[in-house]
Amino acid sequence: MRTNTxxxxxxxxxxxVASNTASGNGVTAGAVNILGHRGQIIGQTGVGAxxxxxxxxxxxxxxxTNINKFTDATGVTATARTEAQVIFGAAGNYTLTIQSDNTxxxxxxxxxxxxxxxxxxxxxxxxxxDQASKTGVTAVVNEAGSGIVLANxxxxxxxxxxxxxxxxxxxxxxxxxxxxxxxxxxxxTAVTLDFDNTVADYTTVxxxxx
Length: 210
Prior knowledge:
Layout: E1 2-3, E2 9-10, E3 30-31, E4 33-36, E5 39-42, E6 53-54, H1 60-68, H2 71-74, E7 80-88, E8 92-99, E9 106-112, H3 118-129, H4 132-135, E10 137-141, E11 148-152, E12 158-162, E13 171-178, E14 184-193, E15 202-205, E16 208-209
Antiparallel strand pairs: 1-2, 3-6, 4-5, 7-11, 7-13, 7-16, 8-9, 8-12, 10-11, 12-15, 13-14
């Protein structure tokens, strides 16, 4: 959230860690309290809620929209973004599905020549970005070249799932966010999508508010 109090202050609300379900993102119900240079609005839950209540499993996009409804009163604006770091356990073939802006999960398949170099991970980046117009999710290699970072620029949840097709190795997913300087921070709580084909594993990553 941004406020004009004493200049342009910048705050990041990183939100819930990655959830290991497809139907919930780990966000618990509550309310947003805002103090801006034009006044204060205190979020309420239940009867008479002002629009700043946070619903269980609510998306960052919805939260930002609700905060911005009161910008005239508070002087505070909010933007939402969702990011996740994805680490692949080994080189080889992977099949995953991605759901974010799309209502039907989109399948991506790729072969990694290496799981720990930028060149080796480029196949995953290309496969995911080829579907970005459908999913709203883009991918880049992280700075270390050890994995990729997924992003939804509007703050919709990202649901990542493996399938009944056996992958080359486990896929590890961590929620990520940018701090005030724009540096990527990775949450330490990870969700693992097992490589085996006995059951499909899910993770839902919620967004964060700036």
